[in-house]
Design goal:
Length: 332
């Protein structure tokens, strides 16, 4: 690999992705490939910290892989793999677990949230999940990790664990930094613009899925909640319109000023239709490419097998050295 900085990011294969995932995360991953060495993983091992249907998990993992490719991640430019295919993550996980404190894991807000939401399945994996995430990152000595704000606490933990290991055993791991993309807008629910757009929303009209067809997308935007005024402009208190403007701007690259001009004198109805059509048109190539990829299982397999081989080659070096550092006898 060249001397560009190294990026690692992972995404869970939990069903199809939303417009929020797309604008806030995935669509930034393609452009990063030109500036950085990138390693991207579909983190299926993280997904089983909550109960999964095995058949669906397998299907969602392949779909997530194909969708990342359809969104512009190129398996020739980046290393792209499925987490469970690369055993070094689990191996380093154990080493790092022994440098992580019970107390610090107990402070993770995502653990507190999820254990409240699934009180019947507060499993040890859910508790130690941030250690596996630290292993994902540190096993490649990644410099930068693109994450949403919800993951910042986990990244902070990864940094602390790396520093603690380095203090115990001597400088070894690169301390990773969070990478906040320049254009990383937060997309809100179309039905309650005070809430983040999320696939777990009960109201299907609240959330656009990347793979929704044009009619569905336009219909959902037509029903989007706005306010009782009539003017399309970005202003405090106009959460619904602000959200639509953010989305429109993200898919057309138009500034808020340009959008205000474009719709001055027109009503919300025209604006909502325009946003719906712009989003549907923007996502069309993604949908088409996804349909092609998901139908070609042999090609997908070739890509993820090669990706896993490359990932293993790099990460094996780290694990071998870490084993030596902690005092394990060489296996060969
Ligand atoms: P999640 O599906 O919540 O695990 O999130 C996966 C990635 O998508 C993370 O980087 C999140 O920060 C991002 N993301 C999820 N929902 C949104 C949203 N509504 N707006 C912007 N980014 C989002
Ligand atoms: N925990 C992340 C999420 O739920 C996914 C993830 C797993 C990740 N390992 C990672 C993200 C390593 C960045 C780096 O969104």
């Amino acid at each position: 690999m060249s001397d560009k900085k190294l990026i690692f990011s992972g995404i869970q294969p939990t069903g199809t992705f939303t417009l929020g995932n797309y604008i806030g995360a995935i669509r930034n991953w393609g452009p990063l490939q030109d500036e950085y060495n990138c390693i991207y993983s579909i983190v299926d091992m993280h997904a089983i910290t909550v109960r999964q249907d095995p058949i669906k998990l397998r299907q969602h993992t392949l779909e997530a892989y194909a969708l990342l490719m359809a969104c512009g991640v190129d398996p020739e430019k980046s290393i792209m793999f499925i987490q469970s295919h690369v055993k070094t993550h689990a191996e380093l996980n154990w080493i790092l677990a022994c440098s992580t404190q019970f107390g610090e894991l107990s402070r993770m807000t995502q653990f507190k949230d999820k254990s409240q939401r699934h009180p019947d399945d507060v499993n040890a994996g859910l508790f130690t999940y941030p250690v596996l995430m630290a292993a994902d990152i540190l096993v490649y000595n990644a410099d930068l990790v693109p994450v949403g704000v919800d993951q910042k606490q986990h990244l902070e933990l990864a940094r602390n664990v790396a520093q603690r290991f380095n203090q115990k055993y001597g400088e070894f791991f690169t301390i990773p930094d969070a990478y906040i993309p320049k254009v990383g807008a937060k997309v809100m629910s179309l039905q309650d613009p005070a809430k983040k757009m999320s696939k777990s929303d009960e109201n299907p009209n609240a959330c656009i899925l990347i793979l929704d067809d044009k009619d569905t997308i336009v219909r959902k935007f037509k029903r989007a909640v706005t306010d009782s005024e009539t003017e399309v402009c970005y202003r405090e208190g106009k959460d619904g319109i602000n959200n639509l403007m953010t989305i429109y701007s993200a898919v057309t690259n138009k500034s808020y000023e340009e959008i205000e001009k474009e719709f001055s004198g027109k009503g919300y109805g025209d604006f909502k239709l325009a946003v719906g059509e712009a989003v549907a048109d923007h996502l069309k190539p993604v949908r088409d490419e996804f349909a092609k990829l998901i139908a070609d299982k042999a090609y997908l397999k070739e890509c993820y097998t090669k990706g896993a081989e490359k990932a293993l080659r790099i990460s094996q070096k780290t694990v071998t050295k870490a084993y030596r550092k902690v005092g394990f006898v060489d296996a060969r």
